[in-house]
Write a structure and sequence with these properties.
By secondary structure, the protein is an all-alpha fold. Helix content is 73%, strand content 2%. It is a multi-pass membrane protein.
Length: 361
């Protein structure tokens, strides 16, 4: 991507508020052992998996094959996420918030939810963008609504789901995910208003609101094309996505280990349209780190072979709400365990209730 912008303001390019400095600067001061160990493990397992991808006779071949398969499905999402994060780092936060809306309420949450639906990225790529939106000044309710709506609601995966489970079920799943996103975002914003969750410190750096069209006209004059600018976007995007890449690699390693011990085929036979099967689905999607591309065919199996639409929806939605990569990334970005842990606590009961109702049909 060659469309480059100059730095919008010095305040945007630096970690301006002192109290939010830790949330802005993702790179840890100490050596990041989790990142490097996970990276080295993936780097070693990936070529082995490419050689042994059809051999599932040993733990090593299954583990490396899982790394090979999952990385091939998620790398592009991370790569595009890095580009989007790099671009967002150059866009004035006032312009971002003019699009999402500064006011708290259903309208701003609806905008954030629609943004998540229409941004065609997988869960790993969308997570990096969501964390950057927080640093642009979005409320925690908007960020949560954005994350819950986006991971499997992209255009490409929607078309895949059309073929796997049918248009009607796919549209129903998307509608229900929008409802969960808006409801959960509203709860988060209400908890912030009550002082039970910390507010976004980046919002304090927003200037007086200016009409979006006026901001765009002024911003458009700063656009230019250059190779140096392109490299700058990639550099800033990688730095801003470091925390997400770290946990994505760790989740990839853990998913490979679980694949070596828990066969995927068991999903279709163990998890029927019962409360027991629904709870087992919740347990499985909590334990197993599956990206949006990987979760889609498994969810289709739960729908078609196990005749459990509620389990299928639960596997898609609860996989987002309980994803440890997402939870740890939210914690590292917001510096708040309360915000991170509220994601599954608020979302999972809604998912289970809707899943139980869907299984009745």
């Amino acid at each position: 991507m060659n469309q480059i912008v100059r730095a919008a303001t010095e305040a945007d390019s630096a970690c301006a508020p002192q109290e939010a400095e830790a949330a802005c600067c993702d790179a840890p001061r100490r050596r990041d052992y989790l990142f490097w160990v996970s990276l080295c493990t993936v780097a070693l397992a990936y070529p082995i998996g490419g050689i042994l991808q059809h051999d599932h006779t040993s733990i090593l071949s299954t583990f490396s094959g899982g790394i090979f398969e999952l990385f091939n499905k998620m790398w592009w999402g991370i790569a595009i996420g890095i580009v989007f994060v790099g671009i967002l780092a150059r866009i004035p936060r006032e312009m971002v918030m003019a699009v999402l809306g500064r006011e708290r309420g259903t309208r701003s949450l609806f905008r954030a939810t629609l943004a998540g639906v229409f941004l065609d990225l997988c869960s790993h790529g969308i997570l990096a963008v969501g964390m950057k939106l927080y640093e642009r000044g979005a409320s925690i309710g908007q960020v949560i609504a954005f994350l819950l709506a986006s991971p499997w609601n992209s255009f490409s995966l929607t078309l895949i789901l059309f073929g796997l489970i049918g248009v009607s079920w796919t549209l129903l799943f998307i509608f229900l995910s929008l409802v969960i996103g808006i409801v959960t975002g509203s709860i988060f914003d209400r908890l912030v208003e009550r002082g039970q969750l910390p507010d976004n410190p980046w919002q304090e750096q927003l200037s007086d609101e200016t009409p979006l069209l006026e901001q765009w006209r002024a911003y458009r004059q700063t656009l230019q094309f250059s190779l140096q600018g392109t490299l700058g976007i990639l550099r800033d995007g990688f730095a801003g996505s470091r925390v997400v890449i770290r946990w994505s690699l760790f989740g990839l390693v853990l998913a490979g280990l679980i694949r070596a011990l828990v066969p995927e085929e068991a999903f279709a036979t163990w998890f029927g349209a019962t409360m027991g099967g629904l709870w087992l689905t919740l347990l499985a999607t909590t334990i197993i780190e599956v990206c949006s591309e990987g979760s889609t065919p498994i969810a289709a199996d739960l729908m078609n072979r196990a005749s459990a639409p509620g389990n299928s929806f639960t596997f898609l939605m609860a996989g987002v709400a309980t994803d440890y990569t997402e939870i740890m990334s939210i914690r590292d970005t917001t510096r708040s365990w309360r915000i991170a842990l509220c994601l599954p606590l608020v979302t999972v009961p809604q998912v289970i209730l809707i899943g139980a109702l869907l299984n009745q049909f």
